[in-house]
Amino acid sequence: MGTTNQRQSRGNSAPRQAGHDAGVVAALAAKGFGTGRGIRDTWARPVAGNAGGGQGRAAAPGLQAASQRAGGSGAKYGNKKATTAEGLKFDSRAELRRWNQLCLQLRAGGISDLRRQVVYELVPSVKFVDANRARPAIRYIADFVYVEKGAEVIEDAKGVLTPEFKLKRHLMKALLGLEVRLVK
């Protein structure tokens, strides 16, 4: 009974804190922060555009939901995926348009050896001493590769020049000596 009385008296003299100041916890709870889960609580507070706070992005003023981006497909740069009648899939309609142009040139004899999604390894994979797994190789995937007038042509259909594409295009020229032709 002595231990029960000690617990009760301890509980009666001050609110049970469990590592938190009760006043701070109450103030945070009043502002919409949860308690007891650490940093994740800040993700659940009701902020405009924060899906964890009960409001979706669509309900938040000034923010676009992923499905409401320009182009309607939810793609970051507004591109829409496209598929041919033969079932070939393309990342954008511009890429499909360029494929159709190249197919016409192939039939007319202007180009030969037309291929798509050709992979070039820019930097091999590496394993750091403090890492469990090896980091994958850095690769560039060309949209189209073909031979025109005896020379190999590497093409990429781009609507937006991303920093990643600019870097990989630079590495293609610097490391492999290959020029990437940009088609918009």
What does this structure look like?
- The chain is an alpha+beta fold and 184 residues long.
- It has helices spanning 2-13, 22-30, 40-43, 93-108, 163-176; strands at residues 82-83, 89-90, 112-123, 138-148, 151-157, 180-183.
- The strands form two sheets. Strands 3-4-5-6 form a four-stranded mixed sheet.
- The chain folds into two domains: 2-63, no CATH class; 82-183, no CATH class.
- 9% of the residues are buried.
- Residues 5-18 and 37-71 have low confidence and may be disordered.
List the main descriptive attributes of the protein structure presented here.
single chain, 184 residues, alpha+beta, four-stranded mixed β-sheet, two-stranded antiparallel sheet, 5 helices, 6 strands, 30% helix, 21% strand, elongated
Task: Catalogue the unreliable spans.
Answer: 5-18, 37-71
Provide the number of structural domains. 2
What pattern of helices and strands is seen along the backbone?
A: HHHEEHEEEHE
Structural class: alpha+beta
**Biggest sheet: strands, sense, closure?**
4 strands, mixed
